[in-house]
Amino acid sequence: MSAAQPHPLFGGALSAVLPHSATDVSELREIPDNQEVFAHSHTDQSLIVELVEYQSQVADQNAARYHFEDIAGSNKAVEPGAFEVTDVVPLSKSEVSLSVCSSAWMLTGTQRVSKFNEEARNVVTLHLGVFRLPQFTTDVLITFNDPLSISPDSSSATSAETHREPWTVLDFRRLLHTLTLHNPGLFG
């Protein structure tokens, strides 16, 4: 079996090894320029690689939680009990390929979210990787959305029955570890 090849991101400015069965969502719908979005072809899992503004007022050890809470707000998962952080760990510089980052963090938590403004709420385990690049005034976020329970009233309910070979946290960690910068011009 050959080793997985890095996939170009943002026109080749970055690359990373993506999990199997990753479909580029930009082939299906419009995606913002600061995001690369991939969906599992047989499950309701997704991965988002996103370039966001570096938050200088947020200490490195709080950056993952800051971005997780920002995502919860975007997902309208802000009421009490709608989101919870279960773990935040630093990624050592020796285990990541993105050597220009000042620090890297991985967060695991859950959010109760709806898709497409539906009433039905799904419980999603959200794994978040944050790479801090203050010299480029950028944080690179990598989000792995892994549904834990899907409401029968959700539009995702049909895909819940087809969890063939889902992505794992190991797939996500490999993506984090293999993220590589090829062109710093990406950051302006």
Automatic annotation (TrEMBL):
- Tell me the GO BP annotations in alphabetical order: heart contraction; protein import into nucleus; regulation of membrane depolarization
Specify the domain of life of the species encoding this protein: Eukaryota
**Per the UniProt entry, what species is this protein from, by scientific name?**
Mola mola
MF annotations from Gene Ontology: guanyl-nucleotide exchange factor activity; small GTPase binding; sodium channel regulator activity; transmembrane transporter binding
Matches recorded under Pfam families: Mog1 (PF04603)
Its GO CC terms are: nucleus
- Per the similarity annotation, which family is this? Belongs to the MOG1 family.
Q: Which Gene3D superfamilies match?
A: Mog1/PsbP, alpha/beta/alpha sandwich
Q: Does the keyword Lyase apply?
A: no
Keyword set, alphabetical order? Guanine-nucleotide releasing factor, Protein transport, Transport
Coiled-coil region: none
What this protein is called in its record is: Ran guanine nucleotide release factor
| UniProt KW Protein transport keyword | yes
